[in-house]
Design goal:
The protein is of the alpha/beta class. It has 2 domains: about 10-225, 3-Layer(aba) Sandwich (Rossmann fold), CATH 3.40.50; about 235-349, Rossmann fold. It contains 10 helices and 14 strands. The protein has helices spanning about 5-20, 55-60, 85-100, 115-125, 150-160, 250-255, 275-285, 310, 320-330, 340-349, and strands at about 25-30, 70-75, 105-110, 130-135, 170-175, 175-180, 185, 195, 205, 210, 235-240, 260-265, 290-295, 315. The strands form 3 sheets. An 8-stranded mixed β-sheet has the order 2-1-3-4-5-6-9-10, with helices on both faces. Strands 11-12-13-14 form a 4-stranded parallel β-sheet, sandwiched between helices. Helix 8 links the parallel strand 13 and strand 14. The longest helix has 20 residues, at about 5-20. The termini are far apart.
Length: about 350
């Protein structure tokens, strides 16, 4: 190796080390499989949220070469138990941490089951351009070839990467980065489970190196109109699954039980039985927000395609699956109950 090449390599290494010493990443832990433990080695079953954040950070060598890492435990649960109360608590703590001048980015550990909903919610109510990356795992911490340590390492690298600024909340597992708006879980147990079926990933992170693709083109972060600061609760929205011989009794029960909005996981392009359409049209006239989404894995639910949304007072979800539609409708209902304005919100976000 020549002297010039050695000088260049030494200079690059020093620059990388200097960046790691000056970049500060805070880890907010919520539990999930990444913090899970099996009852005994080799068992399929496990208990989520068995380890705390200090255990997760301590299990990954080399994190100090990426950034100055600190962590805290917000909650320690399986993500199947995520609810509006925890969302509001997490959003409040995230907001406080991002406002701190000594924090450059945040990583949130979270279970994969509802990560797509939590990440989308946070992307809409977090007024900051600082990087926020959500990470989990498909195998518990005690599993053979656990994926959590590698996932956490690469997500710290992504949160410390200057190009992550302004991209909103990101979701990342198995070397891929996805925008919260676009991502969904596609497999019950495979490590390659998160995909963005309509738009593709936001980038890749491998061995601490990050490559970015196109930036998001819809409202999020500082551009979002939504705020949950000071809120004690969110409007209730229920999801109903369309199927042959769909009962309208579930529609009535949801409304009677206090739902202010309903999302229908419709067949095909957000369709459902005529009986369900009639009952939902009556509900919409009485002020219940109705959003047509689809149970299909990908595609777009277009307005007035097969179903006359204009006449019935419905909202078409566009690219949003039922889970994402529910999140956006909850926040939309904090601003308006007008279906025309809600449709505009779905088109803008």
């Amino acid at each position: 190796m020549g002297k010039l090449a050695a000088i260049v390599m030494t200079t690059a290494a020093l620059a990388t080390a200097a960046q790691a010493q000056s970049t500060r990443v805070r880890v907010l832990a919520t539990g999930g499989t990444i913090a899970g433990a099996q009852a005994s080695p080799g068992e399929y079953g496990y208990k989520s949220g068995s380890f705390e954040i200090k255990d997760l950070i301590g299990a990954v060598p080399g994190l100090d070469k990426l950034a100055v890492i600190t962590g805290e435990q917000v909650v320690n649960i399986g993500s199947q138990d995520m609810n509006d109360e925890v969302w509001l608590k997490l959003a409040g703590r995230l907001r406080e941490v991002l406002r701190a001048p000594d924090v450059d980015g945040v990583v949130i550990t979270h279970g994969t089951d509802t990560m797509e909903e939590t990440s989308f919610f946070l992307s809409l109510v977090t007024p900051s351009d600082k990087p926020v990356v959500m990470v989990g795992s498909m195998r518990p911490a005690t599993a053979i070839s656990a994926d959590g340590p590698s996932n956490l390492y690469n997500r710290i690298a992504a949160a410390a990467n200057p190009e992550a600024r302004g991209r909103g909340v990101l979701v990342s597992l198995n070397d891929e980065l996805h925008y919260a708006r676009n991502v969904t879980k596609s497999n019950t147990s495979a490590v390659q489970t998160f995909v963005s079926p309509n738009r593709g990933p936001a980038g890749v992170a491998n061995t601490g190196k990050v490559t970015w693709f196109a930036r998001p083109d819809r409202k999020h972060g500082n551009a979002s109109e939504f705020s949950v600061e000071g809120m004690a609760a969110l409007p209730r929205v229920d999801i109903l699954y369309a199927h042959p011989n769909m009962s309208v009794g579930l529609i009535d029960a949801a409304i009677k039980d206090g739902a202010r909005g309903l999302v229908i996981a419709g067949v095909g392009d957000g369709n459902m039985s005529q009986a369900a359409l009639d009952r939902l049209a009556a509900a919409a006239k009485n002020g219940i927000a109705v959003v047509r989404s689809t149970r299909v894995a990908s595609g777009i639910v277009y307005r007035n395609n097969e179903v006359d949304d204009d006449a019935l007072g419905f909202v078409a979800s566009g690219e949003f699956n039922p889970g994402k539609s529910r999140v956006l409708l909850q926040l939309a209902l904090t601003r308006t109950s007008d279906p025309v304005r809600i449709q505009q919100i779905f088109d803008e976000y």
